[in-house]
C-alpha cells in the first residue's frame, strides 16, 4: 500500500528516500513550500475519498515559530482541510480530529475505516539550538552530521586531513564566532548545514547534503534520530 | 441542466451513478469503466421528448395508465435507439418485443426483472407504422412529491421504492434486453435535473466523422440560423489556422438525402471536406452542428452535446484549438457538454482554459469513472484539483504519477 507524502522542501524528500530505501513504498511529492501543502492536500485527498481504495497520507511540516506558528495551529490547519474536503466529498461524515501518538507528541494521526483513510502529520519540533528561529528537518540532519562517527566518515571520504572533533568545533563554534564578531548571526540549522558543507568542500544543496549525511549514519542512530517520523510511517502501514 | 444520474442494470452498469454534473463534464477512466454507457443513457434520456400515454399490465394483473415520454429523433434527425443499435453492431432490428396495431405500440416483456408484463403506448394522433422499431424506453417525469404522484406505482415497479425526493427529473425504463446488464431483461436510470430537448441533442462519435450532413438538418438550420455558414467558416478557419479567405458551402450528395461540406477558398478551386484529412473532416462536422446548436439553444429548449473521444484524428495543437473553439461556442449558452476521453492533452487543455478563465471554474468538472463488479463509482476534480494534479504530474486518469512514454523509452535505451 503506497503512502503519499507532502513535504515542504527537497530536504525532507531526500531524507525520507534514505530512511525508506529498502521498502520504497512512498510516493513523495515535490516540495513547494508550506503554503502549498494545504491546497495540495485538498486536491490530492478530495478525488481519492470517492475511490474504493485505501488512502495513506503523510504530511511533514516544520514548526516556523518565528512566524507565530504553533503545533496547535498546524494541527488545526490540517484538521480543517480534511474536514472541509470530507464534507464536500462524503456528505454526512462527522468531523474528525487528529490525536498525538502516545510516545511521540510531535506526530498527530487520524484513522478512519470508511473510507479507508489514514493520515499522519509529523511536525519537526526539534531545534539543535534553542535560540534558532524555527525547527526544521535540517536540525535533525545537523545533529546527525555532528555525531563523531558520521563526521569521521565524511572526512575519510573526502580524504581531508582533519579530525572529526576539529571539524565539529569549526562548524559549531570557531567559524560562527568569527562570523558573529563580524555581525553575522547564524539563525537556523540550515545556516550551519551550509557552513558544514562548505568546510568539507561538499558543493551541493542542503537537500543533497542531507542525503549524503543520512547515508553515512549507522542504521541505529538514524532510527533513533527519526523515531517520530518512523512511528508516523509505521502508523500508516499498520 | 442534468445534475446527476443513477443506474440499474444499464449495459455494463449494475448499480451506482454520478452525483454531480456541471455544464462541461469530462468523463475519464479505464476502458469499460462506463463512460460511453453514461453518454448513451444521457442520449436516450434527452431524446425522450414526445408525450404519450402508457397502459401498464403488472404481473399482479393490475392495470394502470400513466403519462410518459417516448423518444423522437435528435438534432440530426436520427432515431436514438437505432443509432445505439448501429454503434454496437447488433443484428436485426431493435425493439423485437414491440408490435404495432392501428396506431398503438404493444410491448410484451419477457424475463424483464421487473413486475411488469406488458405495456401499451399510444398518442393522440397514433403512432405511425414502423415507429415501433425506434422505441425501446419510456421516461417518467418526477417531481418533489413523487410518492403522491399518479406515476409512483410505475416508478416503484421499475426502480424500487428507494427513490430520494428531488426537484425535477426523469426515471427512464428501457426494455431492450440487449442494452441491459448481462441480458437481465430491462434497465432503468434516474436522472436529476432538466435534460435537453431531443431536437437539440447531438451525439458526436467516431462514426459522425464518416457521415455526410443530413439534408433535413441542413435545410432547417439554413432557414433558422442567420450567418450560419459564415460562422462555420470562421470557427473552422481559426482551428486550422487558415489565413486565406474561404467560404463553407454545402452541396447535395447524389442520393439527395444528405449534403457534403465544401471548403471554397477565394483563389483556389473548392474541395469537399471529405477530401481533407480525418482531423479536419471530424472538426468540420462537429463545428457545423455545434455552431447551429449554439444559435438555436434557449433556456426553455436547452441543448446537449455528447462528444466521444475528441482526441480522435487530431494533432495536439489542433485539438487544443478545437477545444477552445468548442468552449467559445458553448460559453454562456444553455448547452450542456459531456466529453469522454482517454487523452491527457484534452484534460490539460481544458485545465488551461480554466486557468486562463476562458472557462469558468464553476462550469467544469472532470469525473473519473470506476466500474467494479458492475458498480459505478466516480471521483470529481474541479479546477483547483486539476491545476494541482497536473502541476505535480499526477494523472487523474490513473491516480498515479504521470510517466511520459518518451521518458520510458529513453530509460529503456539507456539500459
What shape does the CA trace of chain A take? Answer: elongated
Averaged pLDDT of chain B: 93
Q: Ranges of chain A with pLDDT <50 over ≥5 residues?
A: none
Strand content of chain B: 25-35%
Biggest sheet of chain B: strands side by side, in what order? Answer: 9-10-11-1-2-20-19-3-18-17-12
Strand order of the largest sheet of chain A: 2-1-3-6-5-4
Number of strands of chain B: 22
- Overall outline of chain B: globular
Q: Give the low-pLDDT segments of chain B.
A: none
The biggest chain-chain interface is: A-B, 16 and 18 residues
Judged by helices, strands and strand pairing, the structural class of chain B is alpha+beta
- Helix share bin of chain B: 25-40%
- Integer-rounded radius of gyration of chain B: 22 Å
List the helices and strands and how they pair.
The complex is a heterodimer of chains A (238) and B (415).
Chain A: E1 3-6, H1 10-19, E2 26-28, H2 34-49, E3 55-62, H3 71-89, E4 99-101, E5 104-112, E6 117-124, H4 137-145, H5 148-158, H6 164-181, H7 189-199, H8 206-215, H9 219-225, H10 227-237
Parallel strand pairs in A: 1-2, 1-3, 3-6
Antiparallel strand pairs in A: 4-5, 5-6
Chain B: E1 2-10, E2 13-18, E3 24-28, H1 35-46, E4 48-58, E5 63-71, H2 80-87, E6 98-101, E7 104-108, E8 116-122, E9 137-142, H3 152-158, E10 169-174, E11 187-193, E12 201-204, H4 206-210, E13 213-214, H5 215-222, H6 228-239, E14 246-252, E15 258-265, E16 271-272, H7 278-296, E17 303-308, H8 316-330, E18 335-340, H9 344-355, E19 364-372, E20 375-381, H10 383-392, E21 394-395, E22 400-401, H11 405-414
Parallel strand pairs in B: 2-20, 3-18, 3-19, 12-17, 17-18
Antiparallel strand pairs in B: 1-2, 1-11, 4-5, 4-8, 6-7, 7-8, 9-10, 10-11, 13-15, 14-15, 15-16, 19-20, 21-22
Helix pairs in contact in B: 6-7, 6-8, 7-8, 8-9, 9-10
Amino acid at each position: 500500500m503506497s503512502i503519499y507524502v507532502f513535504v515542504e522542501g527537497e530536504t525532507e524528500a531526500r531524507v525520507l528516500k534514505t530512511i525508506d530505501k529498502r521498502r520504497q513504498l512512498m510516493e513523495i511529492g515535490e516540495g513547494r513550500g508550506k503554503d502549498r501543502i494545504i491546497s495540495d492536500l485538498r486536491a490530492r485527498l478530495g478525488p481519492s475519498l470517492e475511490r474504493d481504495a485505501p488512502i495513506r497520507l503523510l504530511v511533514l511540516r516544520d514548526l516556523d515559530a518565528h512566524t507565530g506558528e504553533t503545533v496547535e495551529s498546524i494541527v488545526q490547519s490540517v484538521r480543517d482541510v480534511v474536514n472541509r474536503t470530507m464534507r464536500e466529498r462524503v456528505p454526512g461524515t462527522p468531523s474528525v480530529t487528529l490525536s498525538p501518538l502516545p510516545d511521540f507528541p510531535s506526530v498527530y494521526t487520524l484513522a478512519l475505516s470508511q473510507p479507508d483513510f489514514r493520515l499522519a502529520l509529523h511536525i519537526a519540533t526539534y531545534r539543535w539550538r534553542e535560540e534558532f528561529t524555527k525547527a526544521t528537518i535540517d536540525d535533525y540532519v545537523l545533529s546527525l552530521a555532528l555525531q563523531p562517527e558520521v563526521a569521521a566518515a565524511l572526512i575519510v571520504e573526502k580524504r581531508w586531513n582533519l579530525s572529526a572533533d576539529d571539524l565539529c568545533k569549526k562548524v559549531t563554534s570557531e567559524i560562527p564566532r568569527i562570523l558573529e564578531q563580524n555581525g553575522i548571526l547564524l539563525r537556523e540549522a540550515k545556516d550551519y548545514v551550509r557552513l558544514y558543507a562548505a568546510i568539507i568542500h561538499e558543493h551541493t544543496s542542503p537537500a543533497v547534503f542531507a542525503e549524503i549525511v543520512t547515508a553515512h549514519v549507522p542504521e541505529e542512530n538514524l532510527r533513533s534520530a527519526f523515531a517520530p517520523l518512523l512511528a508516523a510511517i509505521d502508523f500508516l502501514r499498520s | 441542466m442534468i445534475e446527476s444520474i443513477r443506474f440499474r442494470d444499464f449495459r455494463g452498469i449494475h448499480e451506482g451513478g454520478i452525483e454531480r454534473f456541471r455544464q462541461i463534464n469530462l468523463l475519464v477512466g479505464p476502458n469499460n469503466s462506463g463512460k460511453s454507457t453514461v453518454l448513451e443513457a444521457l442520449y436516450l434520456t434527452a431524446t425522450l421528448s414526445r408525450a404519450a400515454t402508457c397502459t401498464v399490465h403488472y404481473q399482479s394483473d393490475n392495470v394502470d395508465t400513466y403519462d410518459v415520454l417516448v423518444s423522437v429523433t435528435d438534432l440530426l434527425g436520427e432515431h436514438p435507439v437505432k443509432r445505439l443499435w448501429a454503434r454496437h453492431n447488433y443484428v436485426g432490428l431493435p425493439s423485437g418485443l414491440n408490435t404495432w396495431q392501428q396506431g398503438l405500440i404493444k410491448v410484451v416483456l419477457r424475463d424483464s426483472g421487473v413486475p411488469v408484463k406488458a405495456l401499451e403506448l399510444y398518442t393522440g394522433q397514433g403512432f405511425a407504422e414502423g415507429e415501433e422499431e425506434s422505441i425501446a424506453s419510456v421516461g417518467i417525469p418526477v417531481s418533489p412529491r413523487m410518492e403522491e404522484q399518479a406515476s409512483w406505482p410505475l416508478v416503484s415497479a421499475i426502480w424500487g421504492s428507494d427513490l430520494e425526493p428531488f426537484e425535477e427529473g426523469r426515471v427512464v425504463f428501457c426494455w431492450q434486453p440487449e442494452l441491459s446488464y448481462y441480458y437481465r431483461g430491462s434497465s432503468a436510470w434516474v436522472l436529476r435535473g432538466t435534460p435537453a430537448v431531443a431536437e437539440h441533442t447531438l451525439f458526436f462519435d467516431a462514426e459522425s466523422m464518416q457521415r455526410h450532413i443530413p439534408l433535413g438538418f441542413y435545410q432547417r438550420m439554413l432557414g433558422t440560423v442567420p450567418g450560419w455558414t459564415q460562422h462555420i467558416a470562421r470557427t473552422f478557419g481559426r482551428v486550422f489556422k487558415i489565413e486565406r479567405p474561404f467560404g463553407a458551402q454545402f452541396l447535395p450528395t447524389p442520393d439527395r438525402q444528405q449534403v457534403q461540406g465544401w471548403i471554397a477558398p477565394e483563389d483556389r478551386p473548392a474541395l469537399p471536406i471529405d477530401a481533407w484529412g480525418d482531423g479536419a473532416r471530424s472538426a468540420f462536422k462537429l463545428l457545423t452542428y455545434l455552431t447551429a446548436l449554439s444559435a438555436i439553444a434557449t433556456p426553455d429548449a436547452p441543448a446537449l452535446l455528447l462528444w466521444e473521444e475528441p482526441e480522435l484524428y487530431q494533432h495536439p495543437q489542433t485539438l487544443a484549438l478545437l477545444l477552445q473553439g468548442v468552449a467559445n461556442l458553448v460559453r454562456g449558452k444553455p448547452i450542456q457538454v459531456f466529453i469522454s476521453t482517454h487523452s491527457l492533452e484534452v484534460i490539460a487543455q481544458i485545465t488551461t482554459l480554466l486557468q486562463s478563465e476562458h472557462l469558468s471554474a464553476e462550469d467544469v468538472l472532470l469525473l473519473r469513472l470506476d466500474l467494479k463488479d458492475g458498480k459505478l463509482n466516480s471521483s470529481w476534480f474541479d479546477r483547483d484539483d486539476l491545476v494541482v494534479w497536473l502541476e505535480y504530474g499526477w494523472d487523474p486518469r490513473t491516480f498515479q504519477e504521470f510517466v511520459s512514454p518518451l521518458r520510458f523509452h529513453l530509460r529503456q535505451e539507456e539500459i
